[in-house]
Design brief:
heterodimer, A: mainly alpha, ABC transporter involved in vitamin B12 uptake, BtuC, 13 helices, globular, B: alpha/beta, Rossmann fold, 7-stranded mixed sheet, 16 helices, disordered C terminus, ABC transporter permease (chain A), transmembrane helix (chain A)
Amino acid sequence: MDGLDAIAALLVATIRAATPLALAAIGELVTEKSGVLNLGVEGMMLVGAVAAFATAVATGNLPLAILAAMVASMLVAFLFGVMTLSLMSNQVATGLALTIFGIGLSAFVGKDFIGIPITSLKPLDIPGLSDLPLIGPVLFGQDPLVYASVALTVAVGWFLHRTRAGLVIRAVGENHTAAHAIGYPVIAIRYLCVLFGGAMSGLAGAYLSLAYTPMWVENMTAGRGWIALALVVFATWKPGRALLGAYLFGGVTIVQLHAQGLGVEISSHILSMLPYLATILVLVLISRDETKIRLNAPACLGKIFRPDF
Amino acid sequence: MSPTPGTPRLDLRGLCKSFPGVLVNDRVDLSVMPGECHALLGENGAGKSTLMKIVNGVLSADAGEMWWEGQPVRVQTPSDARRLGIGMVYQHFALFESLTVAENVALGLDGAPGMEALSERIRAVSDGYGLAVSPTRHVHELSVGERQRVEIVRCLLGDPRLIILDEPTSVLTPREALALFEVLRRLQAEGRSILYISHKLDEIRALCDRASVLRGGRMIATVDPRAETARSLARMMIGAELPDLSERRTTTSEDHAPLLAVNALDMDRDDPHGTDLRDISLAVRPGEILGIAGVAGNGQNALMRALSGERLVARPEAILINGTPAGHLGPRARRDLGLAVVPEERLGQGAVPDLSLADNALLSAYRHGSLVRRGLVRRRHTHGFASRVIHAFNVIARGSESEARSLSGGNLQKFIIGREILQAPKVLVAAHPTWGVDAGSAAAIHQALVDLRDRGAAILVISQDLDELYTLSDRIAVIAAGRLSDSQPIHAVTAEDIGLLMGGLFTDHGPTGPTNDDTTMKGPGHVA
């Protein structure tokens, strides 16, 4: 049973490593589908992480902490929306500034919380099911945010392609001038999508500080926001592929960590590169059809919309 | 609430609209009766599009009233307009390329039936009016004519009582245009009103009951177009006499060597929607304009790219410029041989939208005269050159600092053609030189091309507009399915001949086209 347990441990670790990436990527995917490029994911995640942690320390109420993370990240996202959608500043520059702002703000708020322990988000424990070998811990022994990430991926995929609201979002991202001419409120729709992206980044941040490593460390996202951004592009704006990419990245990360632990005769620097290489390679391979990329990519991504008056 | 007979369906009273610094609509009155086809005429920049955006709720007026079937109304969004029964077919279609036809239609309807039900309704309407569209196809796969049908079907599903069409034939082939007219006549017979924006005067005379002329934002007159001539309408539109093209010279120049020659050019398509060129041969001699007619998408783009040097040809002697084999040369080397190109797309290919006119002039004229010295741009000379183009070709722009995108289509086209002509090219290749350009600018562009020819240049004009080719060309050839017919003197061919050739029915070589096709066409009108 030892081998099975080891595999189960590896899979559980993979899923845990992948979940924050998946959450943030799904949020950014919706934002980008509406035509807005928000490079501030990393910053929003950090703000969410520190808000969640601070609330957990202050109240001990984890659902409230998760909610606080979402609200805090949405506020930051709203700031981005005001800058880029209402004041029409450049999305790339504003997004980069947002990340830098998020790093600074979270470090400032979090300096009193360094080293404080909290009770972390508990995995589900379904008597019987959770004790099954292999599938017990993998399928029935995760914490609620893991299930939420999968459910949200499915929900977003369904929403974008099967509902009218999703169709409108895709239309706005595809051709904002035409959407405006037909009578859709382009700016308002984009605000909502930016806020959704913020909320999902908040969830991702909360997962890091409440479940993955239940503590606060400055800059604890360690580049995961950027990975999430890259996943969206490599996944050609498809939610299922973004989730797949996140799991792949998580899996290779965990495997190479184990390899380093076992003292494999390869430089640890090279091993650390593997997750990035593997993810890029696989996602490039599955999305090498150029026409499909052109069709899935929101044509107005990053472009500023100025309505006539 | 049934309006009394004689009540206009749409009645605009004293509409005013200004953008910063410009009064675009100045106290405009316009009324459209039920079942009437009403033309709105005007040059680019006369305020037609702005007026229609106000009616459609995309823009709001600064002052004035809009009455709908006897009631004052306020239309603040396109949904408001749709609820009243106003439908709009946009000139640059308001379509989403990556979405299917059904999704595009759904986006234009306020109630949202399920996709299956909607597809059924699309099929019903498209069958009913002979507007063949397939609901499941993606818009990016569709031709321009098909895209327009999607727009019209979308509009009709809202059951509009007033349909606004913004220059609907500017992108259509003659036959597609005739099919559109049939649809419009049926819609009119059903009691729907049609507001038809155009500057093609013959179309308006054939189709419309009344015509209102807008000039400089003011309503100049409302007339019966059938009682007017194309010439008198043009005069109202531009406020001056339309210049006559200078007399066509009858002397041909068979004895001169061609300045541009293409010899048995073959080129495979490089994207799935392209056309293979097969065995293309042509020759343009000094002082001659060769027109190439054809339905869009039959290889015109590929030919343009082969001629301009955007795509290279393996065999250098497939293209001879001024006698020099040039097939393997890039655009710059070909320019050095005396070639100038006016591409199809004004914004993007012909000019960079965000750059000033001076910088755009520099882009193709940088080796010309003294614009650049030792790799450094000489701003004063560049602006001087751009200003010369602006003055010589009567381009309406604030100056050489204006962004290219700020110019209307006709003015930008005049600028692009002027920029090339002032470099005194030996060979000029122009694609669709007056596409979407108003009558005044089109006449100026035609005159400029004729003048250049008379100075001894060889000119190749690719166009879908038969009237234009008849006005300009000395000889004409037809491109169909990537093959080019032999060229013939313009006075030796009728529009019917050209129509047959457009269907691919070449007599000498080339494909045998569809034989069951109805290829009869209306003869070209006689625009002054």
